[in-house]
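Query structure, 357 tokens:
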């Protein structure tokens, strides 16, 4: 029997965002026969409540922050001597690539870019030296993984990285769990329509735009309600905005939800109000669940994915009035419980790692 490749998946912590969900899904889905799997949690003290198989070895490094975990991470890598490291977020990617010269020579480094570099540099409030770190370090990875062709082209253009260093791999989704959720009890009350949005409560996710658009929707659909599944620093200000708009009784902040597809049964549509976005897992999961989709043009990757798809209403610009117009167009067209087969969701299924496969 051939010796298994030793893989170390690295993430700051589990829970919260799409990058963490992708890493957990890979840990559950990669073949135990082909790979010896290790999961490194740089800033977490334990594996929490995530459902990870027993053959995945967890290394909780409990560093106070990512950059403080350099010595602990180096010690782990030199002890494990992995054949391959996959790092899942930009600031952790920087640390891994800085430490690369001190890793065993057999270790190859893959870094996953989970956002549009141009948007991050323009809108994310990152330190001025971030672009320099990207340019200096990413070219030393064995591969840089992007989720869409548009993201790959943006990265190559912004950083001057050769195309053959970049691989495009769509995010996987857990189709088994999404399909099983179709039989879950409905999370909604009242006649609706019922709108669902999922994401971190931060400015780039555009939930303030969604609330302004939803106020317009309520003028035309007075029984409409909205669930926002996610946690973040903007929650207090968003709740205040709800009260100012007279939406407090119509909007539910569900907090962080590990399985947002539990809200799919009974949902009328899924809405993506992001100002800028790479390739959000929540959108792919909603598509896999067949939900009608309404979205702002958060990135060229999102536009390319959604354009000319059935059951999709893509706003022409990233504003609250444009989002309101698209939401109203969708709600005036949809039948109760209507679902769609989005062709791009089949690509996620094809490219996702099979469970234990």
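Result returned for the query:
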């Amino acid at each position: 029997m051939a010796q298994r490749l030793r893989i170390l998946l690295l993430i700051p912590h589990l829970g919260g965002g799409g990058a963490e969900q992708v890493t957990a899904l890979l840990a559950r889905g990669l073949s135990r026969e082909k790979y010896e799997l290790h999961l490194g949690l740089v800033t977490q003290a334990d594996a929490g409540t995530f459902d990870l198989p027993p053959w995945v070895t967890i290394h909780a490094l409990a560093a106070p922050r990512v950059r403080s975990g350099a010595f602990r991470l180096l010690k782990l890598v030199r002890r494990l001597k992995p054949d391959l490291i996959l790092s899942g977020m930009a600031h952790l990617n920087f640390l891994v690539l800085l430490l690369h010269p001190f890793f065993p020579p057999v270790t190859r480094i893959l870094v996953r870019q989970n956002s549009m570099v141009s948007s991050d540099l323009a809108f994310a409030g990152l330190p001025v030296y971030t672009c320099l770190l990207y340019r200096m370090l990413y070219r030393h990875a064995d591969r840089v993984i992007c989720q869409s062709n548009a993201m790959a082209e943006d990265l190559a253009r912004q950083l001057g990285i050769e195309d053959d260093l970049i691989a495009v791999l769509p995010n996987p989704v857990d189709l088994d769990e999404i399909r099983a959720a179709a039989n879950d009890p409905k999370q909604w009350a009242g006649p609706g329509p019922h709108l669902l949005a999922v994401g971190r409560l931060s400015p780039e996710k555009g939930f303030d735009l969604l609330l302004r658009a939803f106020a317009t929707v309520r003028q035309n659909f007075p029984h409409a309600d909205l669930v926002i599944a996610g946690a973040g620093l903007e929650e207090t200000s968003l709740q205040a905005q709800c009260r100012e708009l007279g939406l407090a009784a119509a909007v539910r902040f569900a907090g962080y939800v590990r399985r947002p597809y539990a809200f799919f049964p009974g949902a009328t549509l899924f809405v993506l109000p992001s100002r800028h976005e790479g390739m959000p897992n929540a959108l792919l999961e909603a598509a896999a669940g067949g939900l009608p989709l309404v979205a702002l043009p958060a990135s060229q990757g999102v536009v390319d994915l959604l354009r000319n798809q059935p059951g999709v209403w893509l706003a022409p610009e990233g504003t609250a009035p444009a989002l309101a117009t698209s939401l109203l167009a969708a709600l005036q067209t949809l039948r109760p419980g209507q679902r769609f087969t989005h062709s791009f969701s089949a690509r996620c299924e094809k490219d996702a790692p099979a469970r234990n496969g």
